[in-house]
User: Which sequence fits this backbone?
């Protein structure tokens, strides 16, 4: 929940990146960490496994600056995407003011996307929130891969709550800022509706077909970052030819000592793909052990083991 | 029927200057009595409410988020063990230690202290401070909303738009 602190002249909001494992949530945060204006973001804190998978959450404090005399801050979290970590994922979601759902566009990943989206709805409902009215932006990530679902297919499968959607290639920095900018706008607009009374910041599009809503369903001032649901999609060719985002790379695992512990600053962008552990070798070892046990049992019960041992 | 927007407004936490002054008074008294280094009051979403004592060199935003996360994880653990909540948590360091005390149902008091005092002293006075703070929070919770008292100003929307455009230059 947004905290308004008139004593500190602060507004604090919480944003959570949700989505299936390896869809690019942490990468989004790493890009924001590097691309944000200097001094406006704090350290990126990760509670990750040794294999660099998010265990509890990644956290990035972002200071938007003065908004109508109030220091406006966003606390950005990612959840662990792996199905196994639902209890921690649910804890991170608590009190979220907005959610970016990062979906994997790669062919064959739709089932995981759907499972995670369903899990988001379920967890929101457990906190008494409705996915239909929660501020959610969908990000279709990995648009640079060769075999991907079309935006229409993604929309049809995932966008049942008529959320704004963005295409992204998070590891190159594409689409990361427009996604977060839109969500931040929606969160502040919700706040503005209840505590402000002035002009519109950003708005969730009205539930209308994309073709009808195009150009008219969005709030003022967002022509450049209009969501794909209501505007023409940026063609992949154009995206590929756009200048690559140049940022200094930080060493993976570089430790920044802080009082009482170690914070690991994770690398920014151009992250080498995190390897999925293969189960092949495990099956080979397991199969070998089963064969050995079987042979041992056969020799034992047929008495041949004793003969062999006796010479 | 309560609309979604009213529901959100009711759940939203608004702290006025006079609330924080009262809270600060309790925190400063606790700081003196317990001889702790600093006290940070954090809501369960991980936002800092206020602080007392020496916090130089502490990244308050990150500490607040981690305290809230740590507390949330412990609460879940308590639930699995059949407890409602563990009301006090303690992490011991070589020099500095931290105690987390639950205040009411949505805030956590984080007390950082070193060898100048003892865990017993901190625990004793934290209990007292927590009860006083709980009274203040009850008052905040039960108070009727002020007419226009929590307005962020008519130019909040315009100002937010400007800040977002300035920040998110792609």
Assistant:
């Amino acid at each position: 929940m947004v905290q308004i602190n008139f004593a500190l002249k602060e507004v604090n909001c919480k944003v959570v990146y949700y989505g299936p494992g390896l869809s690019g949530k942490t990468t989004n945060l790493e890009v924001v960490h590097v691309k944000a204006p200097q001094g406006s973001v704090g350290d990126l804190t990760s509670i990750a496994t040794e294999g660099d998978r998010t265990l509890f959450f990644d956290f990035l404090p972002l200071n938007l600056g003065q908004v109508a005399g109030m220091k406006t801050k966003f606390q950005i979290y990612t959840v662990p995407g792996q199905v196994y970590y639902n209890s921690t994922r649910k804890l991170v979601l608590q009190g979220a003011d907005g959610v970016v759902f990062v979906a994997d566009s790669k062919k064959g990943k739709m089932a995981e996307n759907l499972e995670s989206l369903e899990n988001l709805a379920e967890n929101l409902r457990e906190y008494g929130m409705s996915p239909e009215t929660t501020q959610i932006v969908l990000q279709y990530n990995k648009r640079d891969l060769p075999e991907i679902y079309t935006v229409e297919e993604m929309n049809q499968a995932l966008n049942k709550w008529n959320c704004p959607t963005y295409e992204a290639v998070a590891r190159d920095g594409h689409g990361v800022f427009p996604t977060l900018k839109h969500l931040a706008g929606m969160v502040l607009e919700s706040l503005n509706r209840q505590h402000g009374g002035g002009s519109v910041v950003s708005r969730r599009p009205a539930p209308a077909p994309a073709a009808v809503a195009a150009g008219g369903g969005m709030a003022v001032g967002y022509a450049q970052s209009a969501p794909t649901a209501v505007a023409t999609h940026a063609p992949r060719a154009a995206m590929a030819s756009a200048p690559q985002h140049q940022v200094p790379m930080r060493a993976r695992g570089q430790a920044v000592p802080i009082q009482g512990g170690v914070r690991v600053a994770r690398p920014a962008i151009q992250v080498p793909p995190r390897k999925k552990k293969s189960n092949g070798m495990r099956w080979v070892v397991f199969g070998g052990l089963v064969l050995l046990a079987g042979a041992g049992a056969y020799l034992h019960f047929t008495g041949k083991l004793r003969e062999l041992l006796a010479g | 029927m309560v609309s979604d927007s009213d529901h959100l407004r009711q759940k939203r936490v608004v702290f006025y200057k006079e609330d924080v002054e009262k809270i600060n008074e309790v925190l400063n008294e606790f700081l003196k009595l317990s001889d702790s280094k600093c006290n940070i009051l954090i809501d369960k979403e991980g936002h800092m409410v206020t602080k007392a004592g020496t916090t130089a060199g502490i990244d308050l935003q990150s500490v607040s988020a981690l305290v809230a996360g740590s507390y949330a994880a412990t609460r879940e653990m308590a639930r699995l063990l059949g407890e409602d909540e563990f009301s006090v948590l303690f992490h011991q360091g070589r020099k500095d230690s931290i105690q987390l005390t639950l205040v009411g149902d949505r805030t956590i008091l984080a007390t950082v202290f070193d060898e100048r005092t003892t865990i017993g002293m901190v625990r004793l006075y934290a209990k007292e401070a927590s009860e006083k703070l709980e009274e203040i929070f009850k008052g905040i919770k039960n108070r009727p909303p002020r007419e226009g008292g929590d307005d962020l100003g008519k130019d909040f929307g315009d100002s937010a738009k400007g800040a977002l455009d300035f920040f998110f230059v792609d």
Notes: Residues 1-5 of chain B have pLDDT under 50 and may be disordered. The beta strands of chain B are 13-15, 38-43, 48-53, 88-91, 97-103, 107-113. Helices of chain B lie at 4-11, 17-34, 60-80, 119-142, 156-167.
